[in-house]
Each structure stands twice: as C-alpha cells, then as structure tokens.
Amino acid sequence: MREQERGGAGGREGRRDGGREGRQELPPQSPEEQARAICLRLLTGMPRTRRQLADALEKRGIPEEVSQAVLSRFEEVGLIDDAAFAGAWVESRHRGRGLARRALAQELRTKGVHATLVQEALEQLDSEQEEQTARELVERKLRSTRGLERDKRIRRLAGMLARKGYPEGMALRVVRRALEQEGEDADDLGYPGY
C-alpha cells in the first residue's frame, strides 16, 4: 500500500513536472524588449509624457541609452506626443475640475512637459473662458456659503478659486459680482479696485 501511495504521490509530482516540461521557457528579454514592453503596458492605461515613461524605465533598471532610443522610436511612430498630451490635459482638467492656467501649467511641468509645449497648450484657454469657468465654480459654491458672515463667504469663495489657480484679482472680481447678483452688499470687500 505504501508503494502505491508513493507511486500515487510520485504520479502527481510527475504530472506537475510534466506540466512544467510541457511549457516552453521564454528566453530572457533584451533591455530594448523590456523597455518596449514597459512603455506599451504603461501607455495602454492612459497617455503618458516622455519623461513619465523615462522615469518608469529608470526605476526598472533600464540603461539610459536604451531608454532614450526606445522613447525616441515611440515618438517617431506617434505613441508618445507631449504636445497632444498637454492639449488634452488642459482641455480635460479645465472642463472637469475647473483648473485655471496657473494650476494647469504646474501640473504639466510636474509631468515633464517642456515649457514651450505647456505654453502652447494653455493658449487654447482664453481669459474669457477662464473667467466664465471661475463664475460657474463660484455659483456652485455660493449656495453652500449662505448663512455665513460676508467676510467668511468671501474667504471661502476666493480661497476655492485660488486653490484652482485663479489669479487673486480675477477671483475677487468674480466673487464680488456673484455676491452683488445675490443681493449682498459687495461694495466694501476690503480689496480696493476689485
């Protein structure tokens, strides 16, 4: 009986080993193949900038010269396009989160987009569009500040716009108009000229 148990166990082990023998071992990938695979996997989820991909390759130990060659090839074939990335980022984040130029520029810089491409992407937002978005943000937030002291409302509304990158002058002007439209005395905001 013990021999049958051993044979049975051996048979199971044999099947496991047989399963391994049936699989073909993949040859080790070259650094170029590893870099391409990493980039393609990252680009599948969402667009990335060249610098984001370069940072990912560096973290995984891909040599610098291999990384640069692979990234350059990806740019040539259009898989990496920092200008298109920046334009889409500005459109999406302004429309979706209401971010102003200053905040958008900061985000793009942290993603490694070159300053000239950042500037070009931000040109799609004109000051009228930016101010309109600021007014919409204030209108939505205005309801939740009713019942608060006027100064507290002003601080909350202007602070919300400041966190989204709006310049102080624009923020105060928009808040003042919103309060005036609501019937609040906004002539004395404590900020001359706005």
What does this protein look like?
The chain has 194 residues and is an all-alpha fold. Helix content is 73%, strand content 0%. It starts with a helix and ends in a 12-residue tail after the last helix.
Strand portion? under 5%
Structural class: mainly alpha
- What string, H for helix and E for strand, traces the elements in order? HHHHHHHHHH
Task: Summarize the main sheet.
Answer: none
Terminal CA distance = 96 Å
The outline comes out as elongated
Helical segment count: 10
Average pLDDT reading? 85
- The number of E-state strands comes to 0
The amount of helix comes to over 70%
Rg is 29 Å
Layout of secondary structure:
Elements: H1 2-22, H2 31-45, H3 50-59, H4 64-76, H5 82-97, H6 101-110, H7 115-122, H8 127-145, H9 150-163, H10 168-182
Give short descriptive properties of this protein:
disordered C terminus; single chain; 194 residues; mainly alpha; 10 helices
What's this model, at a glance?
With 194 residues, this protein is mainly α. It has ten helices and no strands.
